[in-house]
Amino acid sequence: MEYPSKLIEDAVNQIAKLPGIGKKTALRLVLHLIKDKSENTYALTDALVKLRGNIKFCSSCHNISDHDVCSICLSQRRDRSVICVVEDSKDVMAIENTAQFVGLYHVLGGVISPMNGIGPSELKIDSLVTRISAAQNEVKEIILALSPTMEGDTTAFYINRRIKDFTVKVSVIARGVPVGGDLEYADEITLGRSIAGRTLFQ
Amino acid sequence: MEYPSKLIEDAVNQIAKLPGIGKKTALRLVLHLIKDKSENTYALTDALVKLRGNIKFCSSCHNISDHDVCSICLSQRRDRSVICVVEDSKDVMAIENTAQFVGLYHVLGGVISPMNGIGPSELKIDSLVTRISAAQNEVKEIILALSPTMEGDTTAFYINRRIKDFTVKVSVIARGVPVGGDLEYADEITLGRSIAGRTLFQ
Predict the structure, then answer these.
(1) Which of B20, B32, B52 shows the shortest C-beta gap to A18?
(2) What confidence category does residue B184 fall into, taking pLDDT thresholds of 50, 70 and 90?
(3) Which residue does chain A place closest to B44, by CA atoms?
(4) In the predicted model, what is the mean pLDDT of residues B17-41?
(5) Topology (CATH level 3) of domain A79-172
(6) CATH entry 1.10.3720.10 includes domain B6-54
(7) Backbone dihedral angles phi then psi of residue A110, each to the nearest 5 degrees
(8) Which of A7, A25, A28 sits opposite B55 (nearest CB)?
(9) Nearest to residue A97, comparing CAs of B14, B18, B23, B36?
């Protein structure tokens, strides 16, 4: 498509670099910004510049944070004996939303994926080992809450091997049929796992 | 949802103001920007700031332009006897893509819509009348290429009344079954119009 202005073209190309946004959507957004009040565009760009310039990560759990140590790691009301290991900050938000977990987190920043050139050293696994080793008497359980994919399983396997000498319990989140889902639509591996991992009816 | 950082929250809220983007998508984009190289975020915000600060509109046809008069209005290869009236710049791009039209454009900036508080004075209709009046011997035809909606029809009706004293032909783009579409899926109004507006088989 030919654009009536170089400015439009540049803006469209930049927006279309974002994941899940194509050129058509980008053009729609650009034309919206032009029609809208200019303050709104500046408020948007301002928020993004501040975000990218000032975002910090917790020095303990590596979650996104406004301070050097995040509010979860600082909180006195969290159970310091359990650490839940997740892929990224999105997972922390999702688990926090369940209100089912009161322990601490450890954000790896991804999973082991040789296809994408991500090995253990690209992730915060050493930091996890150091963290457990430094608080060996305090930490009782590590929950591995990684994606139920090949990469997630590989990462869980690797982490388990790295921390097997510590006296901590290592658990993984349950895999089974999703709540509210229909049995006939569950794939056979999930269904198989849900049978193998059955729990006592209470 | 609770965000781990005020910066994240602000950025998500700003992005979610864009049309068609909800908070979940906004969060996905924000987390992408944080993971991505910071240059990419700055390239994006830079393009948007430049866009909003420097965008110009053609003083003749009101299309988006890098200069005071757009390249279409300036071009010597365009047929100056036909003016195609459209709602916005997106339509100009769409019609240019068809390569079926070599005349000039006039961008109204919307259609008459009392529901949204848009009357004729909010649109570039006076400017269209002035333009035709100033070049009465040159302009032979006005093509109304507005959306086939109530608002589009109202606008077409209004423009037609405003310019009926000039000796220009006023036409509207054909309405009928879309090319490649299946007859049985066309709604009855469209199908009715396509029969009423039938043309000779050639």
Answers:
(1) B32
(2) confident
(3) A14
(4) 92
(5) Dna Topoisomerase Vi A Subunit; Chain: A, domain 2 (3.40.1360)
(6) no
(7) 145, -175
(8) A7
(9) B23
